[in-house]
Amino acid sequence: MKRNALVFALLGYVFISARNESHIGDPLPKGYYIVVAAYRIGQEKYMIDYSETLNRGGLHSKYGFDLSRNFYYVYLDYYTDFNESIRVMLNTRKDAGFDKAWVRIMKDLISTAEVRKPDIQPEEIVQKKTITPVESNVEVTKYEKDKVKLKVEEKKSSPLPDAKVIFRLYNPNNSEPVEGEVEIIDTEKSTLLKREKGNQLVSIPYPKTKNGKVTLVGNSFGYRKVQHELSLQTLKDSIPDYVRWDDDHYIIMFDVDRLHKGDIETLYNVYFFNDATVMLPESKYELGKLLDMLKSNQAYRIRLHGHTNGGGNGRIISMGPSKNFFKLSSDVKTGSGSARDLSLQRAITIKDWLVSNQIAAYRIETKGWGGSRMLHDKNSDKARRNVRVEVEVLAE
């Protein structure tokens, strides 16, 4: 009995000591975090090493502390909109190689349940043996019950069921379908409800407003955006000329025309490695759409505008003789220069890639702005959007 009492006393001391240990960094504020790893107090070195390893690979990970659980989280980004965080988390699993990423919900510095049960093993990703991060103990069954409950509540509060639709994006010049997506916005509250891909059966959620009005914005890179205003409440009685009924769903037409002279489009889905003019592999999709645009009209001439997050001088990593646009090869060159130099060289990299795909060099101009035309404060949670390349149509 004495031996058992001693064991319990020691365990109690360890538990209390662990709870009283101080942590580094600030507590995570309210938001939805795309988390890829969790660590206990005492594992700070491994957490920092892992985050730095991810960032050397071209990511922008950060870490923070969860006061309610005494855990550290390494996260790739965070959002104030729940639906957007889920969409990004699923894309992170699918496209970024983090197949066990999850969303951590932080509410007023006290967290609630995760949306997916994490089962992350960072050492499998970075191939470097570390202490295995702590797994969250959230049960998926609880999430599923909450999700069903939420759907029931939404159904009760919605005066009409969601509308089943196909967003038909097409080029009016040849009637060919165009790959793109549609943003569904609550018109009265000016909030994004969801994004859906075009040319497939989806649903428009009924907004929690009396008039049921939504704004639909169809867009695809290389094409002008098309916007429709729609009232779901009166849709059955008064169908607009851009909508038609087909058996059991609506078809909403978006005649997305090609960009014209003077238009400017942003390559938001073209990414670069940190301090580098070399692009990340996931940039290929949107680059392909720019290439298709230039091939669709030989009269197109464009200017590529490069932008960075802030100014100042720093390291610049550029491609070596192997001309690998999407990998930090062993022959990359390391130099230094200003933010304007970096932004210009990134624009030139995209031009070189287009030229390597049979686009004449004279059709493409380049310009670097550095951080002189930032969209957001360089220290804000949206600062990453300052790093971009814009496409201006000079002639068509």
Structure description:
With 396 residues, the chain is α+β, with helices and mostly antiparallel strands. It has 3 domains: 21-141, Alpha-Beta Plaits (2-Layer Sandwich), CATH 3.30.70; 164-255, Immunoglobulin-like, CATH 2.60.40; 264-395, 60s Ribosomal Protein L30, Chain: A (2-Layer Sandwich). The protein contains 7 helices and 19 strands. It has helices at residues 2-20, 44-56, 82-95, 122-126, 140-157, 284-296, 339-356; strands spanning 31-40, 62-66, 71-79, 102-107, 110-111, 163-170, 181-186, 191-197, 201-204, 213-219, 226-231, 243-246, 249-255, 264-266, 301-307, 313-318, 333-338, 364-368, 388-395. The strands form 5 sheets. It has a 5-stranded antiparallel sheet with strand order 2-3-1-4-5. A 4-stranded mixed sheet has the order 9-6-13-12, with no helix packed on it. It has a 4-stranded antiparallel sheet with strand order 8-7-10-11, with no helix packed on it. The longest helix has 19 residues, at 2-20. The termini are far apart. The relative contact order is 0.09.
